[in-house]
Every structure is written in structure tokens, then in C-alpha cells.
Amino acid sequence: MSDGKAFISAGLAVAGTIKYAEKNNVKGRILLFDFKDPSAGVVDLEIHTDQDFTFKKFRPHGISVLEDKKKGEHLVYVISHPDGLPDVIEKFRFFPRSRQLHHLKSIPVGQHLSHPNDLALVSEDQFYITNMAAFHFFPLALVETFLPLGMGAVFFYNGSEMLQVIPGLNNPNGLFLSPNQRLLYVASFLDKTLLVYRLDPHGKGAELVQTVQLFGRGDNLHLTQSGDALLVATHPDFLQFLEHWFSLTPGEINSPSSVVRLPLDDDYLVREGNITEMFYDHGDLISGSSVAAIFDGHMLIGSVVDSLVHCELFSLKK
Fold this sequence. Notes:
Blueprint: E1 5-10, H1 18-23, E2 29-34, E3 42-44, E4 46-48, E5 60-68, E6 73-80, E7 88-95, E8 100-108, E9 116-123, E10 126-131, H2 138-144, E11 152-157, E12 162-169, E13 172-177, E14 183-188, E15 193-199, E16 206-213, E17 217-223, E18 229-235, H3 238-246, E19 257-263, E20 276-281, E21 289-295, E22 298-303, E23 309-312
Parallel strand pairs: 4-8
Antiparallel strand pairs: 1-2, 2-3, 5-6, 6-7, 7-8, 9-10, 10-11, 11-12, 13-14, 14-15, 15-16, 17-18, 18-19, 19-20, 21-22, 22-23
């Protein structure tokens, strides 16, 4: 966000990790990191609700935020995979003074999407969302991450109905809108590519205009503070990541982490000749990098089931 706040979803539990989460009392949470006060660390946000919100079933995943710069408030939308129930989008309002989240409503998506992964807000209650796999049964969905079956898709929710706008994708993972909302960036997990689409202004379709090689399996995307580059967290070794994810013992099996910087031109297309790797770790510091954000010379890196890393950026130029 422009005010230096980073909202983080924690407590993801799907398929083979659900029993581990229940046994170890892993709770679904929304965390806050303030780049302007990094010494404060991560704050666990308190959730208030007057509605039927089941905290035990809250399993947050992809997250997107709308910022109201005048009021200083934020609308926070997060995908939740409640065990035994259809997937939903939970909508919250964040009040910065009290540092509290107020649950506003749940938007059901499970009847349309089998494996929703990430979402990108266009406006209040309107968003693009990835459906990573078509099969509900997890072993078959896992097969989709190895075979180019083209059964994933991107959908657009217009506030009342879910519309499929980009079909035939191989495991679409993270996505992000360009600042002018004319382009949509989608990480194709299986293909190790970033797909760039020009959007229909009414959310009814999209045209592929660029395919960028990532040299790793792209997870989530984030725009730099200046808006001149896209950050992509990737998994350089997918099999190692799977072992790390399903080991169910933190720190037992490490997985490499990488953050790639994709510079953008004036039309927000990727300058493919100037792609750089900003961060790499064998997994000792952080395993399974899932997202990265930059603010005022500092970078925050998240992971799927490991820790967060905060680091200060420096330049090799004198």
C-alpha cells in the first residue's frame, strides 16, 4: 500500500496439510507489517464480526487490498479454504487507528471454482481470480501441476456473477493488475511463464499480448512502490518445494527461494531484456518464497508454509 502497510495471510491449510494444521492448532490469521516501523515486527490483527464467521474454518490464502487514501482505511479481501465447506472470499474493513479488521461479508465462490488461488481487485466487490486446477480431488489437481492439460482459468466477478474470461491455462497462480487496470499479469505455474493480457473494459474477455519466461515456477506477484516493475516470487525447484510443503515438520526439508524483478515500460509491458534476480536463497533463510513487496528501500518476502524475511536493499552502483 502507499502508506507502507503490508497485509499478510497466514494459516493456509489445504489437502495433505489440514491434519497437521489441526494437530498443531494452526490458526487462520491476517497479519500486518508496517514498512515505516519495521522494528515493531508483524502484528496479528484482531477480527470483529457481527455475522456468521467461523474462526476455526478460516483458512486464508490469496489476498488483495483496496486503499482509501482519503479515509486512511482499507478493504481487505482474502480467499479462504474452510475444511469441508465450499471456498469463499472473506471481505474485511481495516481501521488503522484501532488496527482491527471488521468482517463485512462472505462471497461464495466454491460453486464456480475448484481451486481458487489469488485475486486482484478492480473495485469494491469486483475482482479477477485464478482457478489453479479444474479437479476438486486433490491428487488429480496435483496431476494438473505436472501435465499441460490447460484446465485452469481466470474468472471475473462483477459483483453478482462469476464470468470466465481466460480459459485453457496451465495452473494459473498469482495475478496482478497494472496501475491503469488495462493489463492483467498471470503467473502460469506449470509453464514457468508470466502471461500478460490486455483486458476488455467490461470484464468479458482478454487478449494475450506478452509471454515472459521466468526460469522458475511463479507464485504471487506484486508491483513495486514506484510502479515501474513487477516482483515475482518463484520456486526454482518444484519437487523440492513439494517435499518441503508436505514434510509437515518446519525446517525438516528446505526449498530454494527466488524473487525476480520484471521492469515495465510506459505501457506497463515487461522489458524482457532487463529482467534481474533480486534475491536467491537455498532455503536456509526462507523456504518456498511466495510473494515479495518493496517499500522505501526495504523488501518483505513471504513463504507458503515457512517464515517471513525482511531485508534492506542496496545498490552495487557507486
